[in-house]
Amino acid sequence: MYEVAVIEDAAAAEASLDPMRSKLLAELVEPGSATSLAAKVGLARQKVNYHLRTLERHGLVELVEERRKGNVTERVMQATAASFVISPTALSSVQPDPARSPDRLSARWLLALAAQLVRDVGTLVTGAAKAQKRVATFAVDGEVRFASAADRAAFAEELTQCVTSLISKYHDESAEGGREHRLIVAVHPSVTAAQQEH
User: Fold this and answer.
1) Among 5-19, 108-122, 143-157, where is mean pLDDT lowest?
2) How far apart are alpha carbons 110 and 117 in whole angstroms?
């Protein structure tokens, strides 16, 4: 089981967003059968089986074991990942495009960049999984508390200068066999626990 998997197919995204199927995916972080799941989610075993078949058809759950119980074969399933991210590729005709309005100070542009990041890294992760390889990535996550808007603006300016300097230092357009990498640096207000609940 992967820690995180990317859903790139629109039909798989739709299947995962069904409230009951989403609940089943959460339960199937640990292997379970239709019978054991039925008791947990308060649904008839036959209906659970229907949902499991749909999730299996879209590659969101997989068979881990078959157990013989009398005249019945019980299928034990598990989610293919502990959590899922839906790629903007699943909504290809309406996915955000940061090139439409590149405004460094726009929250909506940042959101379009984040969507592009999910799409691109999702594509890389999917390809790497098929090739049984790892993707070379690096990320920094942190929080900073600014005393004022002026401090925030000064930080953004200094960060821009530092990043621009690093890019100039290491970017080599003529490097034979070199591989391009995308760099995204973002600053946004932290989301509080109360905001996450809404």
Assistant:
1) 108-122
2) 10
Residue 143 lies in a domain: yes
- Domains held by the chain: number: 2
CATH, residue 21: 1.10.10.10
Q: In this structure, what token pair is assigned to residue 113? A: 């960049």
How far is 145 from 153, CA to CA, in rounded Å?
13
Q: Report, as an integer, the average pLDDT of 4-28.
A: 93
Confidence band for 2, pLDDT divided at 50, 70 and 90: confident
Residue 152 lies in a domain: yes
**Per-residue model confidence as pLDDT tens digits over 138-152:** 999 999 999 999 999
Q: What is the dihedral of CA 112, 99, 6, 187, to 10 degrees?
A: -40
Instruction: Please check the confidence at residue 198 and state whether its pLDDT lies above 70.
Output: no
**What single letter denotes the amino acid at residue 72?**
V
Nearest-angstrom CA–CA distance, 117 and 98: 11
The answer to whether 94 and 112 are in contact (CB under 8 A) is: no
Asked if residue 89 belongs to a domain, the reply is: no
189: Cβ contacts below 8 Å, ≥ 6 apart: none
